[in-house]
Amino acid sequence: MTSDEILVQEVETLAVQLSEARLSVEKRFVGQHEVVEQVLAAILAGGHALLVGQPGLGKTMLVDTLATVMGLDSQRIQFTPDLMPADILGSEVLDVMPDGTRAFRFIEGPVFTQLLMADEINRASPRTQSALLQAMQEREVTISGQHRPLGRPFHVLATQNPIEQEGTYPLPEAQLDRFLLQVDIDYPDRDTERAILMATTGVEEGAPHAAFTGDALIAAQRLIRQMPVGESVVEAILDLVRSCRPTSADAPSFVQDALIWGPGPRAAQALMLVTRARAVLNGRFAPTLDDVAAMAVPVLRHRMALSFAARAQGQGIDTVIKRLLDDRIGGRRAA
């Protein structure tokens, strides 16, 4: 059997496993197919996701369900203004031995896990938010000069409330860029809300079951990086990301007017990975332009900023990205 045939076989097996995982998640998180797809794609790509939505839309339940389905150890931190970095990372305590000698002992914080839920992350102070920066990028933390590796795999799923901003601290651009995706969760439509009512107000709720283990997830993430990507998809990703930079010669005039800064190369890396992940989630062996179009908004929306004039005109980041998609991806489809 050739290496290509082995790769195809492994992707087929992973697609079946992911289908089972998706069905298990959607037993509890009803009707939000795109949200589930985007969060699963972020985890498959080895990244972190920021979940943004009003209270009561199931953000916490989604993360809890994913921990079970993906077979990961999980911890939850409720971010508040008085939370300190040591409450996340851990701290050293001085132990006194029976013989009178003293020694420092490190007590691990909740960051030493595989799936960390950072609930209402923008409620903590910038000092506390920054405690996650090294963990999210390097999968380790430095405490008292000692490097301490985190769990393998390690993912952060953070939540944020978009409507209640009093007493909050907006995440800095450097930390937003650490999130592979920003997943916006909107109100369900009427039929979906009916399904939610019927599924969650009875005597028993659908219980998720494990479809992965930590080691199986690491193997899946490694497989995602081996998937081939066509030249047309690579060029579409480069065109799209570079067109989002207002100072770039590739940016159309409406982007130069609407944005004050745009995404860096990390956005292109993220888009390349999640398009592969989405392809497998939909039972395909290689990503297409449709995958790029589907994942562009959650990859780019938190890596761009509107100009004052654009905000005054009522424009939104998502609108700018979708207009770019029509311009860049639509033209490639036509060709």
Secondary structure blueprint with pairings:
Blueprint: H1 3-28, H2 33-44, E1 49-52, H3 59-69, E2 74-78, H4 85-89, E3 90-96, E4 102-108, E5 115-119, H5 126-129, H6 133-138, E6 140-143, E7 146-149, E8 155-160, H7 173-176, E9 181-184, H8 190-200, H9 214-226, H10 231-243, H11 253-258, E10 259-261, H12 265-281, H13 289-300, E11 305-306, H14 308-312, H15 317-334
Helix pairs in contact: 1-3, 1-9, 2-12, 10-12, 10-13, 10-15, 12-13, 13-15
Report on this structure.
The protein is α/β, with parallel strands linked by helices and 335 residues long. The chain folds into two domains: 1-226, 3-Layer(aba) Sandwich (Rossmann fold), CATH 3.40.50.300; 229-335, Magnesium chelatase subunit I, C-Terminal domain (Helicase, Ruva Protein, domain 3, Orthogonal Bundle), CATH 1.10.8. It is 49% helix and 15% strand. The chain contains 15 helices and eleven strands. The chain has a five-stranded parallel sheet. Helix 1 crosses helix 3 (59-69), helix 2 crosses helix 12 (265-281) and helix 13 (289-300) runs antiparallel to helix 15. The mean pLDDT is 88.
